[in-house]
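Quick start: read one record
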Amino acid sequence: MKKIIFGLLVMMTALMAELQQVWATPEFVQKNIKIIDIRTPAEWKETGIVKDSYTIMFFDEEGNFFVPDFLKELDKIVKKDEPFALICRVGSRTGMVSEFLSNKLGYKVINLKGGILKMIHEGYKTVPYK
């Protein structure tokens, strides 16, 4: 019986989680969806950031991460049932993080594939990171 209940809970969590894979484009910024930039401060300074995006570093320069700190900052910006987008340099890190946030924690995540570099390549003008 315990296995059946556990299985149902796992299935319910998977059904509640939502992960969308969307190409990062200049047009996406106009959708009025919060964008969380998970890159490092050095990267934000190098390329700039998406206007009105939120900067919360997930991986540090050595590839280390501390999930509780990230979630504490994320929860100040979005509600768990509110769709939001993640962006990084090319989409590799957001691919991993969005899967984790969606499948393990139940957030409604949009992974911006191609990252900030794709948007810049398509003509998007970033704003300086302060």
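DSSP finds five helices and five strands in the chain.
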